[in-house]
Prior knowledge:
3-stranded mixed β-sheet, alpha+beta, binds zinc ion, two-stranded antiparallel sheet, 130 residues
Amino acid sequence: MPSSSARELMDRYPEVFRLRNAGIGAFRGIECDDGWLPILDKMCADLSGLTEVPAVFQIKEKFAELRCYFSGVASDGAYVIVGEAVAEAAKTCEVCGAPGSAVNVQGVYKTVCEEHRLALEKRLSSRYNR
Ligand SMILES: [Zn+2]
């Protein structure tokens, strides 16, 4: 379920997210945390500028990496733009947008800053200690 900030971002790029209201079940939209939204904002602006604007159906985090899925075939230009966003996300906290890096906390992979690494550790350890 996208956050309200994520929904606002999708509102700004109706062409990129044109499958949103197409009644297509596969459409998931932006499912990562809000710290990556500025990166996605730039990515969507760049995608909107392409001659053939690709249709995004899902943007999410998987094993600490940003993933962006298009419906159908996208141009090479689209993959270059997404690659830049993926590289930027790899050093940006997914929660708050501060500089971060990929961590593995008890088998959970996420790109976070030090503060949110500690918060993640605390949250995961409380699963077992209550
Ligand atoms: Zn953070």
